[in-house]
Specification:
By secondary structure, this protein is α/β, with parallel strands linked by helices. The protein has a 7-stranded parallel beta sheet with strand order 1-2-3-4-5-6-7. The radius of gyration is 17 Å and the shape is globular. It starts with a helix and ends in a 10-residue tail after the last strand.
Amino acid sequence: MSVLQQALENGKFGVTAEMAPPKGCDFTEQMAAAELLKGKVHAINVTDMQSACLKASSIGLCVKLKLAGLEPIIQMTGRDRSRMAIMGDMLAAASFGIDTMLALTGDHTMVGDCKASKPVYDLDSVGILRMLSTMEATGKDCGGNDLASTPTFYKGAAVTPVYEPQILQINKLRQKVDAGARYIQTQGIFDLDALKRFMDEVDKAGIKTHIMAGIIPLKTAGMA
């Protein structure tokens, strides 16, 4: 069972750290940072070409972390992959014991550093979650064909609490939970009152899931 899942379902605060793969193929810096996180977090959330900027894939660093005895969360965006590619990558991840994932739609390539790349968007985050949930329930791939072996994942998604009109985020959150998301990670929170208002609306909507607040340490004045 996912380490993060165990923590959340036992009523503990789940703690994760986010890590980006390198823009290259040398994972030395990331693995050194990961060693510092051992025993301090339940999992390491590995970004998938965040902000549409080309880097090594999430699955590569996730495998490295898993082999080093750490718990990775593989991020999977719909921007760069068809449903076949998403399912293929998730099956490959499962073969290494990677059992926690975060589904994202992904920023458009026009905001990134490889603007000539054509976005795919075969599935958005809800579609990815629904496809994986169907696979787990039926043992079949995205084409309805039997799988020789079927993994299960602790599936998550993201939400933006500070968004207007807020009802749109609440409705999208419901769709993600209905599609199989069992935990939610928010975008960075800088206003606790806004987060409380959002959580109150989640309660009013009757949506039951674990919600982890995103915390972004400010490292420099420029970043602030």
